[in-house]
Design a protein that fits this description.
The chain is of the alpha/beta class. The relative contact order is 0.10. It contains eleven helices and nine strands. Helix 2 runs antiparallel to helix 4. 38% of the residues lie in helices and 19% in strands. Strands 5-4-3-6-7-9-8 form a seven-stranded mixed β-sheet, with helices on both faces. Strands 1-2 form a two-stranded antiparallel sheet. The structure holds glutamine.
């Protein structure tokens, strides 16, 4: 044990954060202290007079130093809430963004009335999208791929954590190469890397430095992943099925034209809550 109380320890971190201009110093300090001391938010309050164990105090200090150089809380904690579920992260996974919940919501809605839908998630990362869909639809099955084995390990862990592992197959490989030729799907989702390589330098540091480059970099024009996905999507979709892709705010027109040319009779660009183009939806009719 140290002679520093838990409540004193996190307030010291808060003061350091405040002094260095971090936006939400108190919230960040509390969250990191919860993680370091293994306490939930209630216990952090209840036990604030207890002495902090020395090793946990050291962990908190290391967390604080990482935050002070700009690392996001979710990255330090190794987890992020998405669609009301907690997802484990690692170095090969993007931190799931709230905007991406739109893909989950529209995906689930599109499967309404289907008895045992089969869903493909290309480039699944932490598995946030497919695990959320399977969690919401107990009769659905899923197939998810990622080029990074390490990402699939996180997806597997998350599928187990949320009780959908028995309904989810995971396979390593780039785009369609990981998907057996015989498989057809009712819903195909992806949040692929879509930032144009030259634009990566302009992203905020917490994305540019701390999110995996492979999950962001969409090639010279940001569209490489969509070209790869478009190459087979139309023939892998069951009648009545839907392709839902997250896109960058300025890619609606290009990506929808690309999927129109790739054999889809109906292609739509959908906006997010901020009014920006966010999703391309493609179907056969
Ligand atoms: N939405 C991410 C961002 O913060 C990009 C994710 C992606 O490329 N799929 O810019």
């Amino acid at each position: 044990m140290s002679d520093v109380a838990i409540g004193v320890a996190w307030r010291q971190v808060r003061d350091r954060f405040r002094a260095s201009g971090i936006d939400t110093p108190e919230l960040d300090a509390r969250l990191l202290a919860q993680k370091a001391f293994g306490l939930d938010s209630m216990a952090l309050v209840r036990r604030e007079r207890e002495p902090a164990p020395a090793d946990q105090l050291k962990t908190l200090d290391q967390f604080a130093q990482r935050r002070l150089v700009g690392e996001p809380i979710s990255r330090i904690a190794g987890e992020q809430e998405f669609w009301g579920l907690n997802f484990a992260l690692n170095d090969s996974t993007l931190v799931p963004r709230p905007e991406t919940e739109q893909l989950v919501e529209e995906g689930i809605a599109s499967l309404d009335g289907k008895r045992s839908p089969y869903v493909l998630d290309l480039g699944t990362g932490s598995g946030a999208i497919i695990v959320s869909i399977l969690d919401a639809l107990p009769k659905a099955k899923g197939f998810a791929t990622d080029i990074a084995e390490e990402a699939l390990a996180a997806a597997r862990q998350n599928a187990e954590r949320h009780g959908v592992a028995a309904r989810l197959q995971l396979k390593a490989g780039p785009w369609w190469q990981a998907v057996p030729h015989t498989e057809m799907f009712d819903l195909i989702v992806a949040n692929p890397p879509y930032i144009a390589t030259p634009a990566i330098a302009e992203l905020p540091a917490e994305v540019r430095v701390f999110d995996p480059r492979a999950a962001l970099d969409g090639g010279w024009d940001g569209l490489e992943a969509y070209r790869a996905i478009a190459a087979q999507a139309a023939r892998r979709l069951n009648p009545g099925g839907l392709v839902l892709l997250e896109i960058g705010y300025n890619q609606g027109e290009t990506v929808s034209r690309m999927f129109g040319r790739a054999g889809f009779g109906r292609v739509e660009v959908r906006k997010d809550l901020a009014g920006l183009d966010r999703v391309v939806a493609a179907s056969h009719s």
